[in-house]
Amino acid sequence: MTKWTIKDIAKKAGVSITTVSRVLNRKEEGMSEETRQKVLRVMEELDYQPNRLARGLVTKQSKLIGLIVPTISNPFFPELCRGAEDEANAHGYSLVICNSDASAEKEEHYITILKEQQVDGLILSSRSGLSSTSLLPFLKNVHYVHLDRMEEEAVSGVRLDNEAGGYLAGKHLLELGHTKIGCISGPNEIRNSRDRVAGFTRALAEANLEPVWIQEGDFSLDSAYQHAMAKLEETDVTAIFTCNDMMACGVYRAAHGRGMAIPKELSVIGFDDVPLVSALIPKLTTIRQDTYAMGRKAAALLVQQIEEGTTDFAIFEPTLVVRESTAYVPTGGND
Amino acid sequence: MTKWTIKDIAKKAGVSITTVSRVLNRKEEGMSEETRQKVLRVMEELDYQPNRLARGLVTKQSKLIGLIVPTISNPFFPELCRGAEDEANAHGYSLVICNSDASAEKEEHYITILKEQQVDGLILSSRSGLSSTSLLPFLKNVHYVHLDRMEEEAVSGVRLDNEAGGYLAGKHLLELGHTKIGCISGPNEIRNSRDRVAGFTRALAEANLEPVWIQEGDFSLDSAYQHAMAKLEETDVTAIFTCNDMMACGVYRAAHGRGMAIPKELSVIGFDDVPLVSALIPKLTTIRQDTYAMGRKAAALLVQQIEEGTTDFAIFEPTLVVRESTAYVPTGGND
DNA sequence: TTGTACGCGTTATCAT
DNA sequence: ATGATAACGCGTACAA
């Protein structure tokens, strides 16, 4: 029928609401097992559920955590959300997920909404424009951690060592004997992308090499396809590093268009290790970031900040996952 | 500093809390523009944000909608969530997303939590075990709609006409001249899967044909790969229909393993049209369901149910998306 | 046009 | 060991 309140339970059990509240909050100190059981029975019988709004009003915690991502449709984010959710849930929090489409207005809008909802904290995996600084006014009076996307070092949050990832990719190609290597980066205004390219060129520099070319993509399959189609004709590289997996797909398509076999005639290495890459033929060699773990860690840091007031920062190390899209530099190549 | 309340605004503006509450709720009827502006100025100045917990306690609505999906990592769900979120947000609701991993316990757990959070309604895109009936006790006193996954017809919700989708797939292959067709289904206990196969066989039956074989997969790439590898050797089909896109990827891999070219020697048609399929080479022909629209519709129905008490059901029609993985039956085949 | 006072469901303080 | 009762921040009859 209607929703029962603590008051109903109290009346039906013949006790005061204080007593009911006590058994609810497991303050078992001093309380006859008899009344305890009596109250529990009535709660069971009426299928009573406490009202968190009322509770939150007095305890000042909603047990809600807000998560803002650019868009969950980007295959990079689902795992990250899962991680955050699992960890949050383990601590008794629920996750309110918001997609900002990387729009500053939407971000600000959602932060406002979430604060009104009295979320206990925020996980920001989006970024307002080029700098998160502009969000600062909106982030007053609320705990938050950054996750993955951030321009400058944040006080609290988690990110990947993107530079190390780029280095891993470069090193891997080098070890396979490649010397003529191309690179399709992400947008230069995104720090993650810049770092990946930096690591990549550092690896080549250590071998006294430099990329034959670096094209600026936008993380989309199509941008990479266009660049690869053009460059594959103009130049003769034996390997391409793309700053995410989606763009590696674009290179696959371009190679197919140019009649080049992967990895026999062209090695391809991506970045992220999103689930879809295992569906590619050949399976994609890539730089893996453990997004699930990063999501969990972000939530853990946030909960810690909420409950203990401590802030911390974590940097994850990427790993090289060798699959089928990279091979030793083709022998008999026109070196 | 601290969070301001309606009381602070009232005091600072020299009016009563009632007045503040009035301007807050835009009850502009009868109120001097002067005091109105005064209050607004103070709210602006203090960067006041109403507390939805307190508000919800009296209005009895949290402006929260719960969404339960099996797992957002399954590429089928992100778009669906986006749709639901966009629509919910347009109506002033925020979305609490929960992943049940298709576990009945988790579902029940989340429904309980969400009800405690006083969500105004639930979107259920998961299913408890084989029947949603078992969830009924948990769904007392709460508005909800079903989305996509449901065993029997629900009172309110949206789903795809899966039978029609299967029919479309069968018809398409028939029109390309195929007569020897295999099918890899999803788990038989899932209604969506059964319906797809039913539509598919109905199409063949209309041409006095029947599938050369039907193998029961589990929606995973690997299950389809195993089945296809085996059947591609035993039998000589010229086309395969898989009940989702992921399994089509498995068939791609098997065809590759058996040295068969798609679509030249083998046509493949999938189901769902998840984003990843555009990354495949060749691009996958598939039966598309507009998950974004379905998500929006589900949220719309729910909001309608919450705000107007009306319940409704919507059935979406799938469409055939012809890409590159299906072709006319190979000529000179060993008929 | 504006203000007073009560209630929403719960926790917390202080009695008993 | 248990119970009144005052908050929590807001909306809303009802009064002025």
TrEMBL record, chains A, B:
Keyword Transcription regulation applies: yes
Entries under InterPro entries matching the protein: HTH_LacI, LacI/GalR-like_sensor, Lambda_DNA-bd_dom_sf, Peripla_BP_I
Key words of the record: DNA-binding, Transcription, Transcription regulation
A Pfam family annotated for this UniProt entry: Peripla_BP_3
Gene Ontology terms, MF aspect: DNA binding
Superkingdom of the source species: Bacteria
Domain HTH lacI-type: 5-59
Name of this chain's protein: LacI family DNA-binding transcriptional regulator
